[in-house]
Give the backbone structure.
Amino acid sequence: MSKSLQAIRGMNDILPEQTPLWRYFEGTVARLLDNYGYKQIRMPIVEFTELFKRSIGEVTDIVEKEMYTFEDRNGDSLTLRPEGTAACVRAVLEHGITGGGQVQKLWYIGPMFRHERPQKGRYRQFHQIGLEVFNLDGPDIDAELITMTWRLWGELGIRDAVKLELNSLGTSESRGRYREALVEYLSAHHDKLDEDSQRRLKTNPLRVLDTKNADTQAVLVDAPKMADYLDDESRAHFEGLKARLDAVGIPYVLNPKLVRGLDYYSKTVFEWVTDKLGAQGTVCAGGRYDGLVEQMGGKPTTGVGFAMGIERLVLMLETLEQIPEEISRQVDVYLCAFGEEAELAGLALAERVRDQLPNLRLQVNAGAGSFKSQFKKADKSGALYALILGDDEMAQQLVGFKPLRGQGEQQSIAWDALAAHLATCVVQG
């Protein structure tokens, strides 16, 4: 017997009972970004492999071990995008929309791909919402990104469950000086480092700072601190960011070990973390990457952005039971019609109601059925009310109106008064 077909490990179906919460989250974010003046951009999920080698860094874990890379029929090396920033930078360069110092405030949404060990909150196909801002170099735009996420957490009801961690990586020059000091210190304690940190010491030493190994963390207690190597410009930028967060009243924690996993970051880096999801504590992260556009062949262009993981934030809403009641109900009203004449009249009536109440979720029974079977489907749909069209109602051009949840008696409503009645009962409450 052949093996049954199933999804690839770590690449999951999002089933109909799950999608309402996804749509609620995505819609909430989209409305917020519209209100702040951000515009959506959509990029392909496949790019030339060289794009990620040049932007992320060839010695990062992502490029070395996690990318889905393959040759196409032309012999080109292609990669499923592991993150969105590089693709967004490629797009703005290709289309010249940041040329001449044009400010661009962009956002995108979609799947990313990394070959990691699947676990709760970490998958091989995962979904992100990302923001990228180009040609604004002050701490005010860094603060705006963080303030937007703070407002989002409030709208979602999870603000008390997240914590903001901040750090500054300085410019590439100051980071280079710090890197030399860190390598010198860690080399003197080489035997005390875990195997992974020993490897990173040769390739990407700043990543040693975010190790989870307890013995290596003990070594890092006396390691040089990035703050002591910051240049004056980066220090002033960081102080400006903190002043703005203080003005808005957003609490934060300074984390000198926060470096992020990608090579292109400079100056501001931040993470929103939670202790509600076990090992997968980061739900949103980003920072400034002022040298990336030039590194990828463009003119000097400042940039800053972040990405948030949709799976983790949806899981967080479920864990904290912050799911609005209305999104668990997909149908407001269910129309039951008995007999072909009633079915035809019900179809026309439903369309007239939809014309007048475009936000009403009205489902018309399909597949006919007895009175009992149609009411069973109406109840299973989760609708608040059932509409009934039978011979008696047809003769008088009425429709039966029956509450399915809670109190209330069945009543009859004239066809031309139905939309107004539904507006009072459903759309407005």
